[in-house]
TrEMBL record, chain A:
UniProt-annotated binding residues for Mg(2+): D189, D193
Enzyme class: translocase
Record's keyword terms, sorted: ATP-binding, Magnesium, Membrane, Metal-binding, Nucleotide-binding, Translocase, Transmembrane, Transmembrane helix
Residues covered by the P-type ATPase C-terminal domain: 216-467
One GO term of the biological process aspect: phospholipid translocation
Cofactor: Mg(2+)
Gene Ontology CC terms: plasma membrane; trans-Golgi network
Its membrane topology: Multi-pass membrane protein
Record-level Gene Ontology MF annotations: ATP binding; ATP hydrolysis activity; ATPase-coupled intramembrane lipid transporter activity; magnesium ion binding
Annotated ATP binding sites: R10, T72, G73, D74, R162, K168, N192, D193
Protein name, per record: Phospholipid-transporting ATPase
Annotated transmembrane regions: 255-276, 282-299, 329-352, 364-382, 394-412, 432-453
Lineage of the organism: Eukaryota, Metazoa, Spiralia, Lophotrochozoa, Platyhelminthes
NCBIfam families linked to this entry: ATPase-Plipid, ATPase_P-type
UniProtKB/TrEMBL annotation, chain B:
Region (Disordered): 1-55
Keyword ATP-binding: no
Record lineage: Eukaryota, Metazoa, Spiralia, Lophotrochozoa, Platyhelminthes
Predominant place of localization: membrane
Name the UniProt record assigns to this protein: Cell cycle control protein 50A
Transmembrane helix found in the keyword field: yes
Biased composition (Basic and acidic residues): 39-55
Membrane topology: Multi-pass membrane protein
Family indicated by similarity: Belongs to the CDC50/LEM3 family.
Protein's organism: Macrostomum lignano
A single Gene Ontology CC term: plasma membrane
InterPro entries to which the protein is assigned, alphabetical: CDC50/LEM3_fam
Subcellular localization, as worded in the UniProt entry: Membrane
Amino acid sequence: MEKFAVAGLRTLCIATARIEPSRWEQLEAEYQRLATITWSCWRHSHRGQAAGGVPATINDLLLAGIRIWVLTGDKLETAINIGYSCRLLQSGMEVRTLTGSGLDDVRSKVAALQSWVGGLEGSSKEPALVVEGEALAWAGRPELRAEFLEVCLQCRTVICCRVSPKQKSDVVRYVREALPTAVTLAIGDGANDVPMIQESHVGVGLKGKEGLQAAAASDYALAQFRFLKKLLFVHGAWSYHRVTIVILFSFYKNLTLYITSFWFAMASGFSGQVMFEKWTQGLYNVFFTGATPFALGIFDRSCSQENCMRYPQLYKENQGSGRYNFKVFALWMLNGVYHSAIIFGCVALALWHGSVFPNGQVSGLYYLGSTVYSLAVVTVALKAGIEHTAWTGLSHLAIWGSVATYFGFVALSANLYPHVGSNFAEVVGFDWALFGSANFWFLVLLAPLLALTRDLAWTAYRRTCAKTLREEVMEMEKLQRDPSSVLLRNTYKRMTETVRLLGRPLFRRKAPVPVSQSFADNIDQMAAGANN
Amino acid sequence: PIIQSMAANKRTQHEMQAHSSGGPPPPPQYPDADAGADNEEKPSPPLRKPSDSKFHQQKLPAWQPLLTARSVFPLFFLVGAAFVPIGAVLFTASQSVKEAEFNYTNCRDASGISCLEQANKPDYYRWLRPPCVCNMSIHLPDNLTGQVFAYYALTNFYQNHRRYVKSRDDSQLLGWKPGSEEPLQDCSPYRQDPGSGSWILPCGAIANSLFNDTFQLFYHSPTAGADLAVEVPWTSRGISWASDRERKFGRVNNFTGTSKPPNWRLSPEQRSADSFQGDEELIVWMRTAALPSFRKLHRIVLHNASSAADWFKDGLPSGNYTLLVNYAYPVNAFSGTKSFVLTTSSWSGGRNPALGIIYMVVGCLHIVLGALFVVIHIQASKNLRSSNNEDQQTIRPVFL
C-alpha cells in the first residue's frame, strides 16, 4: 500500500469475509456503488499529473510572488509526491511533516517546528511543511493556532494532506484571520473544494469531468488549471489598474469642476450662487465627461497580454495596495483642487472687469461660469488622455468626442430659450459670445495646458528616473527591444534584498487539480466503457 | 459527491444494475496518456468560444505614449516657443487700449454739498429732490483714438449674490405676462406694490436696483475759447447684447394696472417707448456681473455726430473735460464706490494685461521645464549606460 502511495497512486484496501445470504441481500445494493469505486483507481493511475501544464503555471505563480499552499484529501506520501512533481517542493528545500494526534503531542511538535524554522532563517535552505489532516485538526485549535500559523507563514510552501472539506475552509479562515491584509484565492475542482472556495476572497472552480459543483460555487469558473495564470496576470492585473484609474479619475473630474464653485463662492459672498447653467451642470457626468472613464475602464491596458504572461514578476506591482491607497487618493484629490484653482484663477483674471468683447459690451455671471465649465471639460478630458496607458481608437473617440459634445451642447443650448419654458435663459447667445471671443479661445489653450503641466512634468520625471518594472518592460516593448534583460536585472536585484516572507502580506493557496478528482466522472467513463 | 453524481446519471445506474449479475465489469481500456487534454472518450460538446475579434479579445491596436523626459521636453519647448509670442501679442493688444477711470463717489455739487450724503436721504433717491449735480473736472492725459466707450464701474456690489440673481421674472421681461398675472415669488419683496396692491413690472431686486446716475461729458478745447465746452455725443444704442435684445427682452403692450419698481424715478414707459426691448440700460443692468467689482457699458461715443463737428472724429483727444453727474445712486450703504470710465477697445476687449502676462509667464516656465528635462534625460541615459555596464559583470540569472 505504501509503495503504491509513494508512486502517486491512490490506494484502496479490499477485504473478504463470509457472510450469510440474508446479510448479502442488504449489501447487494451497496455492491453497485463499490464496484464502480473499485475501478476508479485503475483509471486514475494513468492520469498524468502533468495534465494541464500545472507545474509551469505554479512556477509562474511563485515568480509572481504568490504563495501557494496545497490542500488535498490524499495520503501523505501521495501529497508529497504531487508536491515534487508540481515543483512546489524542490531540492533546495527542507521538508518536514507534522503528524500526530492529541493536543500535547501536536503542541510539542509545533514547538519543534518553530525552532526548526527559526534555525533556517538566514540560511539558503527554505522550509516547507507537510501537515496531516489529524494533526491539522489539533493544531488549528485556538490554543495552538497562533504558533502553528506562525510556522506555516514562514514556510515556503505548506501542503496539507488528508484534509476534509471543512478543514480546507478552516485553513483558509485561519489564514485570513492571521493576515487581514492578505488576499486569498482558492482553486479546486471537486465538490469537496466548495467550502474552501467560498471561504476565500476569490474562489476559482474548475469545470470538467469532476462535475460542476466547484464551478457553481465559485467566483470564476475555469476549464483548466493553467488558465489561472491568465486570470491573474492579465485579467487580474488589468482589472486592478482599470478599477483604480476609474475610481480616481471619477472623483478627480468632479472635484475639478465643483471646487471652482468654491472659489467663486469666495467672490460671491458665500451666498451659494451657482455660476453654471443648471442643465449643463447636470449633464457633466453623463455626457461631457462620461465617456472617458468608460474608455479607461474597459480598454486601457497597463501592459500587453504577451508581456503579462511572459513575465510573472510584473504581477508583483499589483500586490500590497500599491496603486490604490489613501495616499494615492488624497494626491489625486489635491490635484483636482489645484486644477480647479488654476482654471478659476485664469478665468477670473481674464474676465476681471467684464469688458472682454471688441464691441465694448460686457460679460456677466453666467459667462464666467460657462468659460470655467468649458475649461474644466477640456482639462479633464486631457487629463484622461495623460492617464491612458494605451490609446485605442475608442479612447480618441471618448476624449475628443467629449469635448466636441460639450461644444455642440453649448451651441445648442444657446438657442433654446424661450422655446423650452424658462430653461436655458442664462445662456442665450452664448454660442457667439463664447466661440466668437478671442479671449475664450486663448483661455481654452492656456488653462488646461497650465494645469496639466505639473501632471505631465511629474509623469515624465517619474518615468525617466523612477520607472516601475512594468513601465520599463512597456518601454522596451515599444522600442522593440527584448525586455528580458530588464527583468533579469530586476530579478537579481530582488533576490539580493532581504525580504522576509513575513513582511510580504500576500499569499494564495490552491489545491492541485489532478489529485483531487472525485470519483464521479470516473463513473461516466466506466459507463461509456461498459457500453462498449 | 459520488451519490450526487449518481443521482444525476440515472441512465448510468441502470447499466450498472444490468451488469451486476455478471460480476464486476471488466477494466476499461486505457487511453493514451495525453498531457493537457481532458476530453478523451466523449466527443467534446459544441464549443462556445467567444468571438475572436480584436474588440472582444482586448487586442485593439493602441498608441502607447512613452511620456519620458525624452518625449516630453520637445513638447515643453514647443509650448514655450508658442506661448511667449502669444502672450506678447495679447499684452500688446491690451496695452494698446487706453483707459481713464474717474472715481466720483465723493464728488460735490457746485455749492460744495457732498452728493454722497445727499443720496442717503430717502427723499432723495426716491424723488431726486433736491438734485445733486456733480461737477468734476477731469483730465485725459492721452488721446483715446478709435471707438471710445463710456462705462460706469461699481465696487463691492455683489450682483452675483444668490438671492439677488434669482430675484427676477424673465417672462415679464419678455413681455409675456400681462399686468394681471402675478410675478414669480422669487421677486419678493419687490413683487407687489404695498400701496396699490398692483404687481410690480419689472419685478425683482435686480430691476429695482437699476443704476440711475446720468452723465454728461464736455470737452474744453484748448484752441477754442475758454468757455466753449463741446458736449461729447454718445448713444445708448448697442450697449446691450443683440441676443438679449432680440430674445430675452420683449415689448410690453400694456403697463396699466402695474407699478414701477419702488426705486425707479421714471416708469418703464417713460424710460423707453419700446420697453423693455428698447431700454438698453436696463438690459445691460439685468445681465448680472460675475464679480463684486464690475463695469457696465453705459454709452458708445458717436464720433461722426454732426453736433460735435469734427472734434471727436478720431476719438477723444487728450485734454480737459468736465463730467456732470446727476448723482442718484446711493452706494454708501454697502461701502461701495462709483467710477466713470472712458476707454477704447481692441480685438481682445478692454484693457486687461492679465492674459498676456500669464501667457508669457507660462511660456517661460515651459522653456525652463524643457531645459530641465533635457538635463534629466541626459543624466538618466548616463545612469542607464553605467548601470548596464555594471550589470554585465554581476548579473547571474536566478529563477525561482
